[in-house]
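CORE FACILITY INTAKE
Project code: CF-77B
Contact: R.S. (postdoc)
Sample description: multi-component assembly, four entities in total
Requested service: structural model of the whole complex
Turnaround: standard
Below are the sequence entries exactly as provided by the requester. Do not edit them.
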Amino acid sequence: MTDTKEKILITALHLFARDGFEAVSVSTIAGELGMTKGALYKHYANKRDIFNTMIQRMFDLDQSVAQKYGMPEQNFNVSTDGYDSVDLAYLKNFTLAQFRFWTEDDFASSIRRMLSLEQYRSEEMGRIYQEMVVSGPVQYLADLFRAMMNTGRMKVGDAHSLAVEFYSPLYLLIAMSDNKQEERDPLAVLEGLVDSFIGRWRV
Amino acid sequence: MTDTKEKILITALHLFARDGFEAVSVSTIAGELGMTKGALYKHYANKRDIFNTMIQRMFDLDQSVAQKYGMPEQNFNVSTDGYDSVDLAYLKNFTLAQFRFWTEDDFASSIRRMLSLEQYRSEEMGRIYQEMVVSGPVQYLADLFRAMMNTGRMKVGDAHSLAVEFYSPLYLLIAMSDNKQEERDPLAVLEGLVDSFIGRWRV
DNA sequence: CAGTATAGTAAACGTACGTTCACTTGTCAA
DNA sequence: TTGACAAGTGAACGTACGTTTACTATACTG
C-alpha cells in the first residue's frame, strides 16, 4: 500500500520532470506502473495531490540535507545566525556536495528539473524554484560572506557580487550536466574554480 | 494577413513561454486574439507548425545578432576562425549586450523561457537549449580564450574552466532576472565581475 | 467463520482537446 | 459587375483528458 503510493510518486515525478505537469496524463502514470488509472485514485485524491506531495517531500528533504552537512538551516528562508563555525575550506566541501546532490540524487535532480518546468506558471512556483536553486543560494552565500568578513575570516568585498561569482559556476555546471555528452568532468572544473576563489579571498 | 500571422506567433510564444507547449490550447491562443480557433488554421497548418516557425525565427535572429555585434558567427556551431580582432574589452561590451538581449528583448527572452520548458522533452530540444544559452556559449568562449592565449592577448590558463567562470554569472543573472523583486542591479553586478575577470587575465 | 477495509478493475461521466468542414464575408483584379 | 480568393465563423469530428462509480478479489480482524 505505502509501497504503491511511493511508486506512483516517483514514477509521476520522473514523468513530470521530463514533460511538465500538464503534459503528463494520469493514464500514462498508471500505465507506466502496469495498473489502471482508477487504482491511482485510491492513493491520491487527484493529479494535483501527487504534485503537492512531491513539493512537501522536497521541503522535508531540504531540511534534513542542510542538517546532514552541518550548515545552518536554510529552509528556504535565510537566517544570519549560525555562520560562526563555517570557513571557506568547509564551504568548498559543501559546494561539491551540493553539485552531486542536485545532479546525482534521483529525487533532488528530478524535482529540480520539474520545478524548472513549472517556474513560470505561477508566482508560487517561481518563488520555490528561485529559493531552491537560484536567488536563494545567492542570498544565503551573501549573508555567509558578510558574516565571515565581519569576523575577519575573509577579505572584505561586495558580498552580493561575490556570492554571484561563487555560486554561478555551480548553477551553470548543473545545467550543463542535464545534457550528456559532456567531455570534461564538471566536478573537477568546479573544484578548480572554488580553489581559485578561496585563494583570492582567504585572509 | 501577414500581420495576423505575426500576432498569432507572438501571442502563442508568450503563452508557450509561461505554460509550455502542451499546456497551451489552440482555443486559448485564438481567444487571446479575439478570434476563433478555426481562423488560426488559415495561417498555420497545426499547433506544432506555430512552434516550428518560432524555432526557425530564432535561428535567423541569432545569426543577425551575432553579425550586429561584430562577433564571429556562432550559428550554434562553434568556429575557431575570426577571433583575431576580439579582445577582452570588446568581450565585455558583448557580454553586457548579451544579458540585455536575453532579458529585455521580448522575442529572445520569451524563446529562451519557452525552450527551457521544452529542454527535457526531446533530445533535439535539449540540444537547441544547450547550444543557445548553456554549453554553446561556454564552448564558444573556450575557443575564443584559447585563440587569445595563443596570440598573447590573454594570460595562459585552462580555457574551458575560464569560459565557465566567465559565462556562469551571465547565465545565473539571467535566471535571477526571471524573478522580479530583485533589489540589486544585475547589470552592475555583471559588469563588476567581468572587470574583475579582465583585471586578472589581461596581459 | 463472518465481516469489513483495502486495492484493484472496467466502464462511464462530462469536458476539453486538435483538427476539419461548410459556410459567410470582404477585397480586389479582370 | 463579376468571380476568385483570402480570412473568419461556428458547428461538428473523433479522441483523450481527469474524475467517479459499481463492482470484485484479497486479506486482515472480531
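Facility notes:
- The interface with chain A takes residues 17-23, 113, 116-117, 119-121, 126-127, 130, 134-135, 138, 158, 160-161, 164-165, 167-169, 171-173, 175-176, 178-179, 182, 184, 189, 192-193, 196 of chain B (CB under 8 Å).
- Residues 73-80 of chain B have pLDDT under 50 and may be disordered.
Invoice: internal transfer
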